[in-house]
Amino acid sequence: MDFLIFQAPMLMVQASMDGILLGILFALIAYGMALQWGVMNIINIAQGELVIMGGYIAYFMYLAGIHPAFGIIVSPIVMYFVGWGLYKLVINKVVDRDLFISILATFGISILAQQLMNFAFGADVVVAVSNFGTTMLFDNMVTLPNAKIFSGAVCIMSAIILVIYMKKSKLGRAIRATAQNARAAKILGVDTEKVYAATFGLNAALCGIAGACIAITFTLHPYTGLPYTVRSFMIVIIAGLGNLPAVAISGMGLGIFEEWADYLLGTEFRIAAVFSLLVLILVYRRFKLARKREYLK
Amino acid sequence: MKKVYRYLVTFVSVIVLTIVSTTVSFSKVVGDKIILGAAVSLTGKYSSNGVHTQNGYNLAVERINSMGGVKVGGKNYKFEIIYYDDESNSGRAAQLAERLIKQDGVQFMLGPYSSGLTKAMAPVTEKYGIPMVEANGASRSLFTKGYKYLFAVLAPANLYLDVAITTAVELNGGKPVKIAMAFEQDAFSQDVRLGILDAAERTGSKIIIDDKLPKELNDMAATLSKVKATKPDVLVVSGHTKGALTAIRQISEMKVDVPMLAMTHCDAAKLSKQHGKAAEYALCASQWHKSLSYKDKYFGGGMKYAADFNSMFGYEPPYQAAESSAALLVYKDAFERANSFDTTKVRDALAATDMQTFYGNIKFAEGGQNVSKPMVLFQVICDDSGKCENKVVAPLKWASAELVHPIPSWSKR
Fold this sequence. Notes:
The complex is a heterodimer.
Chain A: H1 4-7, H2 10-40, H3 47-63, H4 71-94, H5 99-121, E1 134-137, E2 142-145, H6 146-168, H7 170-180, H8 182-187, H9 192-217, H10 226-239, H11 244-265, H12 270-296
Antiparallel strand pairs in A: 1-2
Helix pairs in contact in A: 2-6, 2-9, 2-10, 2-11, 3-4, 3-5, 3-9, 3-10, 4-9, 6-7, 6-9, 7-9, 10-11, 11-12
Chain B: H1 2-23, E1 29-30, E2 33-40, H2 47-66, E3 70-72, E4 75-85, H3 90-103, E5 108-110, H4 115-128, E6 132-134, E7 150-152, H5 162-171, E8 178-184, H6 187-203, E9 206-213, H7 221-230, E10 234-238, H8 240-253, E11 260-263, H9 271-274, E12 283-286, E13 295-296, E14 300-301, H10 302-313, H11 319-338, H12 343-351, E15 354-357, E16 360-363, E17 376-382, E18 388-394
Parallel strand pairs in B: 2-4, 2-5, 5-6, 6-7, 8-9, 8-10, 10-11, 11-12
Antiparallel strand pairs in B: 1-2, 3-4, 12-17, 13-14, 15-16, 17-18
């Protein structure tokens, strides 16, 4: 047991690949969170519920006989309007208030969404089967589900498209301007209200894509949103706001670290290991900052 | 004058409130009705199984009442159940137990769904000396606390997968086997794990992987990598429906070959329906299966129960429904033997229960658990058209199909 790493070194490759594919998925959700945190200064506790909602859209397509992979197209479109509607209903009332108020508001949304989904979709754990098969590498030692590879590719693609969109499009420019200084942007004619609604919608759409991927790679249940919220929150804390490459790297890094910890230490230490790493990173950052501060004195 | 009037209003309302709150109590038996109390999860995360539980109770009530009811002291009584929704929340369940007993005056309780909620309610019923016959709490810790008024018609959690290890050792020619375990970190799954530890010790088997899955996890890739590296003879998984679905998805996607795969909650997870052929050959622990040959006069046998349940509720009964129906049969039997509605007498009669129902034999041990009904294992078997069915394969006495062992490797499927 203790020497698994020597017994089957090839499986470390497996663990790393699993970690990367898992990390990419979390990174996409985290990117959505970082985006609206940066622009609107809102920490969205309901992030995980948006993900699960997106997953159910793909699941219902699967039930209707459509291949669930098409969920990555339908789900973000539907979720964009869900996010937009949420903004108009609730978020616009808390957007320029204290951070604490927005946490409370989104926490409320998250509970409401859980209960509504449970009511509407039932309390059964469900999966959508993609029948994508498996890729075997290194003499069948490393097996990668194609569904996971597919989700990884989709997440990378959507992240790239989003970056280009933010750089080139008019709305993207407006979003970036609002993030820098909302008041100045307003003075210069940016309709910040519209920008906020679009940002929240974009975030929900990203969650929709991730949810559709989760429907074909993992399982769905109305109450399983929280881990996605927590994980994306963590990634954003490590990576910082508005820094997409950092989000991607910290997402994948955490994924690999998590799988390795599981593989080498045992599953019970998996989450403990990730959180200990988070604490270490935060402490290290503090020391680094403290040193900088001394410099300034 | 106004002041006096105000005092008068306060005074009168206090008196009215006092009277109202003390006289709402029904007694345990109203007219020809025996009132039972139950808090089940009609909403929240256990709502599907909560509904199975309620349907099981209702079917049995309907059947017993239509066949003459319960005969106590020469008079025929009918069952009636007061339901509350516990919202799948253990705090709420304990509250509702208080309410049923103190406000509604219920003196006989039926159990909720899940070990956790039963654990929350048992101290309350125990405090008031109210008998509770429960059908959906299997956790071992329920039966080690010395509760006197708790009776469970189902086999305790530590016996769920015991028979799988026994079978694996038998098939290995009586020689010990290598066991890999992956259990979720909740009370129920950890009890199942303790049962496996006992079985391993008894058979001299070796446990080579012992993973405890975090509750929020739906990824078992690392555990399965370990299974690939160490090649155990048996892989045992328990993590409710999510664990079962995740295990099947990832085992089939990662093409993990293992001679025997045993788990819990397969029928609740609708494995054969949701995963189809990918779930083939999985062994599942079950409290009950309709093909078992137990009989009683109310439901006939398992097949007939399944047909009746299906015609009333429109779906095949999972074992959660069957065991819930059995709880009512136990109550009926105990009332008639006690020939009284005195809670202590009924409790003693319950403790002395020794009967057969369509669900299985019921006889309670000291701690209140049912020890005379073994668990069964079924295997998911698919035909060529891809239609999958659960067939009982162990214990041999009830087997309706032969166990496929070892599981053919993925390259040959």
